[in-house]
Amino acid sequence: MLKGEWLKNPLRLAGHLKCLMMELKDYLKQYFGFDTFKGNQEAIIENILAGRDTFVLMPTGGGKSLCYQLPAMLQDGTAIVISPLIALMKNQVDAIRGFSEEDGIAHFLNSSLSKAEIQSVKDDILAHKTKLLYVAPESLAKDDNIQFLKQIKISFYAIDEAHCISEWGHDFRPEYRSIRSRVDEIGRAPIIALTATATPKVQSDIQKTLGMVEADVFKSSFNRPNLIYEVRPKRDVTKEIIKFIKANPGKSGIVYCLSRKKVEELAETLVINGIKAAPYHAGLESSVRSANQDKFLMEEIDVIVATIAFGMGIDKPDVRFVIHHDMPKSLEGYYQETGRAGRDGGEGRCIAFYSYKDIQMLEKFMQGKPVAEQEIGRHLLLETVSYAESAVCRRKQLLHYFGEEYTQDNCGACDNCLHPRETFEGKDSVVKVLKTVIAVKEFFKPDLVANVLCGVADSTIKAYKYNAIPEFGSGKDHDEKYWQTIIRQALVADLLGKNIENYGSLTVTPQGYEFLKNPHSFKIAKERDYEQEGGDDSGEGGGAMVAADQTLFTMLCDLRKDIAKKRGLPPYIIFQDPALQDMTIHYPMTLQELGNIPGVGQAKAMKFGQPFCDLISKYVKENEIERPIDLVVKTTGNNSGMKLYIVQSIDRKLGLDVIADGKGLEMSELLTEMEKIVNSGTKLNIDYYIDEVIDEDCQDEIYDYFREADSDSIEEAIKELGEDDYTEEEIRLMRIKFICNEAY
């Protein structure tokens, strides 16, 4: 063990440096069983032993914990480790105790302990048994703990997950800002701050706040060569996740979701589809959370479905994939969470499912927060959008974000390098967008700006008479999705901004005005269909999907036509084309299997399904087809919290505007959710609302139209019925009523 007097005399310590270097490796072997240090570990430990403030920027899996654990073992006194997650302190303490015969060598001090347990911890510290004491910042702030810590010799303070200090970090925690004042009150000792995710701006903020601007900085490369990065469009996301996991049997993985409800729904869906999975989020009881975490670590389950509350401090080296069901709020969060994969240097797949609708929802969550906080959040979200939609190497973009240059042209381990996308010149389109934003007096949100460009005169545009401006319809050669992409890229390039006070409306930045004066080349990657979320099961369009078995598809269409004719119904009321196309992929032969097809549901399967099952069964047997039935995703029955909320609210006869406000939805978004519910097999009775907002004669005219129409296309209905006579909202409402009355 190093002598205490060495540490009091830096010059003497320097004189023994050669011997010390030999001893450090010996102690590394003795305490942790490793023969060699990784990366900067040895230099960091020497710096701490020399009594220097130390800033460590090291990616997940680089061995940050060892940087403070080993010097704590070698010094007199107790190292105070400040960590944000109480739930994971026990794991860290247990890991340290595993290397020692003395349990008292490491403790945690937090609100989960009883008075007797707290006293036992303090007794061990006073008896000089404890080398590492883990505390939460809240515990550090308690007066009785401050008074106790004043009595003991503190070797140094280690501040783990130091990015929590910065308001510009992805996981800012206000209580972290007061750490320095608590340290000064308890008694000064060297500080080591550690994080896996900090941009140069965040790093500077951390050092200033902790009063360690002169600290020695040890920055490791953020590059994780063994990780493969991929962003996929958020379409049939649950199905895609199940397919991926089943294609990688027995491998450990983490699926991250933004909400607790989605965590529980997805975990339940994975389990009923034969995948060993469990949920993890802060809302679960502590015992359940710990049990699920232990099952994952002990490989009793393969997959943990979690919010960001899971992962920090978990040392499971063989996580083979990390999937983001939802894009996180920042690239720091994304990098840290993907960093759980392949910590042993082995395979690590990082797949994120992206839809801009998720970003819009995160923006809505920021409403009501202080303007400064909204501005920071908006900046972080824009970086995430840029990463997701960019055609540039994912690795190059991530490293650049953290202030590191990646010089290779092709990393060979991300979707953009493995499958490069074509780009096109977007200069003229950007100019059109900027001119339109100015023409509507910087008052419209992106969706309305896109509508103006496309020449879609909804009620808002008519009310402001913007259907009469020159820019109206100037971009009708492209669809709304195209213009949304141009708008987002202009936001990322800082040519457009968003008005925080008038939340969400687009503004032209000084850079945007300069672009209008001197337009220059603006390359845009061809869209990867990021916007078509959840497939086209709303009844609109339906042409994007192609039947896997065209012969069977034709037979199913003929059967549908016969049944529709006998029942006096339009064919789409029986089953829509996407449902028939799915049948040609999965070949459902029973009503239960048919009910699992998107757009069918058990109610429709029972009412119309038997002839279809009979036809498919006969076809499969005659053609000796091997069915991929394992790809038919079984559902939990309740589908989602959103569905339950809408169904229950309509049962209570709440106004649709009230229902939409309750979930922060626009009316068009609520109608889309209702269409999904109806098309998946659940009947909604919205007569009470329709009777209030649509005249009876108008109801009859729209209803009769759908009874005779060949398709349920809203666009065709508007053309036939007249856009001046009926709004899109009225027609969609009546289509929902028609389907519910005739299909169930």
Record keyword descriptors for this entry.
744 residues; alpha/beta; Rossmann fold; Arc Repressor Mutant, subunit A; 5 domains; six-stranded parallel beta sheet; 37 helices; 49% helix; disordered N terminus
Explain what you see.
The protein is an alpha/beta fold. It has 37 helices and 17 strands. Helix 16 runs antiparallel to helix 17 (371-389) and helix 25 (550-567) runs antiparallel to helix 30. Residues 1-21 and 530-546 have low confidence and may be disordered.
Structural class: alpha/beta
CATH architecture of the largest domain: 3-Layer(aba) Sandwich
Number of H/I helices: 37
Strand order across the largest sheet: 3-4-2-5-6-1-7
The largest β sheet comes out as: 7 strands, parallel
Poorly predicted regions are 1-21, 530-546
Layout of SSEs?
Layout: H1 4-8, H2 10-15, H3 17-32, H4 41-49, E1 54-57, H5 64-74, E2 78-82, H6 86-97, E3 106-109, H7 115-126, E4 132-135, H8 137-140, H9 143-149, E5 154-159, H10 179-186, E6 191-195, H11 200-209, E7 216-219, E8 227-233, H12 237-246, E9 252-256, H13 260-272, E10 277-280, H14 286-297, E11 303-306, E12 319-324, H15 331-338, E13 348-354, H16 356-365, H17 371-389, H18 394-401, H19 415-418, E14 423-425, H20 427-439, H21 446-454, H22 459-463, H23 480-492, E15 496-499, E16 505-508, H24 510-517, E17 523-525, H25 550-567, H26 571-574, H27 577-586, H28 591-595, H29 601-608, H30 610-622, H31 641-651, H32 656-662, H33 667-679, H34 687-693, H35 696-708, H36 714-721, H37 728-743
Parallel strand pairs: 1-6, 1-7, 2-4, 2-5, 3-4, 5-6, 8-13, 9-11, 9-12, 10-11, 12-13
Antiparallel strand pairs: 14-17, 15-16
